[in-house]
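Q: Please design a sequence for this.
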């Protein structure tokens, strides 16, 4: 069970094998989830993002205990499981193919910069501390991604 938890928590192994930036590589499974959820209605997108966010807490907490290191960089479930938050209501399938790359960069930059109060929230204990900063960062990313859609794609 420990190996399975680590496999899931590391983005299906991507966070374990990435030579650099395990959080970025470990976010990639989230891209597939986002494309799948882009076919769903807004309420389903919201419910799915909430369910994944809640599920990420025990997954990250168990992985942290297994690795014995607080918020180990190899734990990327907080990235890939919360990634769909940044795309709620984004009409991804009607945008150019490269828009996902732009949105992905926004999410990763916001996660790395950790605007207030993200960095402070990281100090919370266990899985909640691992996940909560990413939850708030993804809300910032959701706002920025919607602004990008309005600014660059809404009037085409």
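A: Design:
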């Amino acid at each position: 069970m420990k190996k399975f938890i680590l496999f899931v928590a590391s983005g299906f192994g991507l966070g374990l094998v990435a030579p650099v930036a395990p959080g970025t590589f470990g976010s990639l499974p989230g891209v597939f989830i986002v494309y799948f959820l882009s076919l769903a209605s807004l309420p389903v997108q919201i419910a799915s993002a909430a369910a994944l966010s809640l599920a990420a807490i025990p997954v990250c907490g168990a992985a942290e205990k297994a690795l014995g290191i607080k918020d180990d960089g190899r734990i990327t479930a907080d990235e890939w499981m919360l990634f769909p938050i940044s795309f709620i209501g984004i009409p991804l399938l009607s945008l150019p193919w490269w828009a996902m790359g732009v949105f992905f960069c926004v999410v990763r930059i916001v996660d790395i910069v950790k605007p207030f109060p993200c960095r402070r929230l990281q100090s919370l204990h266990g899985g909640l501390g691992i996940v909560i900063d990413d939850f708030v960062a993804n809300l910032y990313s959701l706002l920025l991604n919607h602004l990008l859609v309005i600014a660059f794609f809404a009037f085409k």
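Q: Thanks. Anything notable?
A: Residues 126-153 form the longest helix (28 residues). DSSP finds eight helices and no strands in the chain.
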